[in-house]
From TrEMBL:
Signal peptide location: none
Name of the protein described by the UniProt record: LysR family hydrogen peroxide-inducible transcriptional activator
Transmembrane parts of this sequence: none
Organism: Bradyrhizobium yuanmingense
Residues in HTH lysR-type domain copies: 4-61
């Protein structure tokens, strides 16, 4: 009989994800020698090599690659057992892992955390901020409980819950205050400042302007809305930002704000979680807290499970 421990499986999963003993050990809060010993014991128990070791990094063997996916499934099932136990309790307590995209987290996170802590003081809230594809991957793999993103994500294994609609505003240099608001056709002729590739907000801005991509000579990328607004303040171009970002990002910038004519560009903010999550009822309650924190009215017909 093969004797394996959940600790060994979690360490192997971390190593498979990071591809580096040092980073994997740090993520597991243990020393690198201790991690190496556990992986070696796992290999001995299974009777096969899991890794190809080199001085700079590690690579999974074919056996290791096949095992990595099975280990992720096992760990996800184990975590869901814990979620099932928590879901059966009257109170909402324990670990809650929430993911948010960068164009939401700085503006909603403080209010969401404050309200959740007040309403559910026994919650241990852990937040992960990164772009949508990474959040969806971690959610599917069971490393997040839910994520707050712009919909749709169209992942068959997830339930999408639409929360509220948010408009985009045009940000121009302060000297443009009071001048006519350009149409979407006119926007294509302007120097449009965008977030870098990978941000869904970039794609939404381009879609509004009926552009597949911005002309290279006119495009200047940034990795945050704050940088975009400061670039506009310097007279470099114009940009779009979501409503929730306006109070934070424009308070110290010499810019002017304008709304577009109808139909205004917008996005749908929502929550997603695994269809199999035992915490679905609690997460639906949290979605109400998100709307409360944003000061928004919830959209109708908001819950939609993706078809497999």
């Amino acid at each position: 009989m093969i004797n394996l421990t959940l600790r060994q499986l979690r360490y192997f999963d971390a190593l498979a994800r990071h591809g580096h003993f040092g980073r994997a050990a740090e993520s597991c809060s243990i020393s690198q020698p201790a991690l190496s010993m556990q992986i070696k014991e796992l290999e001995e128990a299974l009777g096969g090599l899991l890794l190809e070791r080199s001085a700079r990094q590690v690579a999974l063997t074919r056996f290791g690659e096949e095992l990595a996916q099975r280990v992720r499934d096992i760990l996800r099932s184990v975590d869901e057992l814990g979620d099932f136990a928590r879901a059966s309790q009257d109170r909402f307590a324990g670990r809650l892992r929430i993911g948010m995209i960068p164009t939401i987290a700085p503006y909603l996170l403080p209010k969401i955390t404050k309200n959740l802590t007040r309403m559910h003081p026994e919650l241990d809230i852990r937040v992960r901020e990164t772009m949508t594809p990474r959040l969806i991957q971690e959610l599917v793999e069971g490393r997040l409980d839910t994520a707050i993103v712009a919909l749709p994500v169209s992942e068959p294994s997830l339930t999408e819950v639409a929360l509220f609609e948010e408009k985009f505003l045009l940000v121009r240099p302060g000297a443009d205050e009071g001048t006519p608001v350009p149409s979407r056709e006119m926007m294509r002729e302007m120097r449009l400042l965008l977030l870098e590739e990978g941000h869904c907000f970039r794609d939404q801005a381009l879609s509004f302007c009926n552009m597949q991509s911005a002309p290279p000579r006119e495009m200047l990328d940034a990795n945050s809305l704050s940088t975009l607004v400061q670039m506009v303040s310097a007279g470099i171009g114009v940009t779009l930002i979501p409503e929730m970002a306006v109070p934070v990002e424009t308070r110290s910038a010499s810019v002017s704000l304008a709304r577009f004519r109808d139909p205004e560009p917008s996005r749908t903010i929502g929550m997603v979680w695994r269809k199999t999550s035992p915490l679905a009822r609690q997460l639906l309650q949290i979605s109400e807290v998100v709307c409360l924190s944003a000061g928004k009215v919830r959209v109708r017909q908001s819950v939609r499970s993706q078809k497999a």
